[in-house]
Write a structure and sequence with these properties.
The chain is of the alpha+beta class. The longest helix is centred in the N-terminal third of the chain and has 17 residues. The chain starts with a helix and ends in an 11-residue tail after the last strand. About 35% of the residues are buried.
Amino acid sequence: MKQMQSRIFLVAALLSIVLPASQSSGATATIRDGSTLQLGNVTYRLDGIDAPTVDQLCIDQNADSWTCGIEARDQLTKLIGGKQVRCDDLGPDPSFKKRRIGVCKIEGDTTSLSQLLVRNGFALNVEVSASGRFQVDEARAKDDRQGLWKGCFVAPREFRAGKKDGPLLGAACRADRDREIREALFPEDLVMPANCNIKGKYAVRARVTGNLGIYHLQACRSYPGLTKPDRWFCSEEDAQAAGFRRAYNCRSTTKSK
């Protein structure tokens, strides 16, 4: 009996190794931001990369501010071009369980959207394994001054965390203009992206619930008084994925997701 149980456990272990990640059927993608897309009811964060969210600003080669987060989202839209997308589901997103990690490709294409975005300079490689999947693509995009690399920017994760003293990246970063560049990348009056009217504010008190900050909906009593938000979100799910919780003064009028 024990020998049979051992064999069963061995077979189960082998199956867990060789079974591939589940794959979605081809579907039309809804683009949430430069590294997030939705297929049907499932939202995937593209595996192995980090791209700007829609409210992130960068500096271009002429030292002018530009909405690189919106451009990153638009670049992903252009890459897909209305074609069907398939995603290999790698499991829940460790940072936000309502979303999944996905290796996503245009149906019929062998190159992942993650690699294409890094290659075009609109996403950073975050793969730290020895294979360094997208390190070559990132180095080439940097050398060729593609996308974000043509100007000056902070890594998307630094922007999302509100880390204003993080390293500056890109060909147009000037040490003698450090203060001015950082003021442009983190302006006091962050421009609201179209259709993204949820205000986010970093708050120490939010850390009690394990969050970075608090988000405020238009229905919240606190919304009109918050004149200088640190972040803008297009949906409550986007705000929650970024580590923000809803303001308590609007929970009685708005149902949680």
